[in-house]
Amino acid sequence: MFEFEQDIVNVLLTEDGNFRRLYDKHHALKERVSHANAGEEPLDDLSLETLKKQKLMLKDQMAMMIEQYRRTHPRVSH
After folding, report:
1. Quick one: pLDDT at residue 1?
2. I want to staple 41 with a disulfide (CB 3.0 to 4.6 A). Which of 19, 30, 34, 35 is the partner?
3. Degrees (nearest 5) of the Cα angle 64, 55, 59?
4. The pTM is what?
5. DSSP annotation string for 41-68
6. Three-state secondary structure call for residue 3
């Protein structure tokens, strides 16, 4: 997730508690979805889709925070 923005993600994980909370929750949901898809956690289709939507909403929120950080912290070109 956000492989091309890893530097910004690392800064936000360290400096922004809200970003850290979203990141951790996304990770937990990702694990649950993975376990459900592997048959390790029994979930009906509706519950699984709900988890996937929650995970996507978190990812979208983090993407907005990354974009905001990029706009307020422009990289210096040499």
Report:
1. 67
2. 35
3. 15
4. 0.85
5. S---HHHHHHHHHHHHHHHHHHHHHHHH
6. helix
The terminus-to-terminus CA distance of the chain in angstroms comes to: 28
Furthest C-alpha separation in the chain = 54
Could you identify the residue written with the tokens 């997730």?
1
- Enter the DSSP assignment of 74: P
Burial (CB count within 10 angstroms: exposed 0-12, middle 13-18, buried 19+), residue 53 = exposed
Quote the tokens at residue 49: 């889709």
Extract the tokens encoding 29.
């949901």
| Overall average pLDDT of the 45-64 stretch | 96
Question: At CA 35, angle to CA 29 and CA 38, rounded to 5?
Answer: 140
Under the banding of pLDDT at 50, 70 and 90, the label for residue 2 is confident
- Torsion-angle region of 44 (φ positive above 0: left; ψ -120 to 50: alpha; else: beta): beta
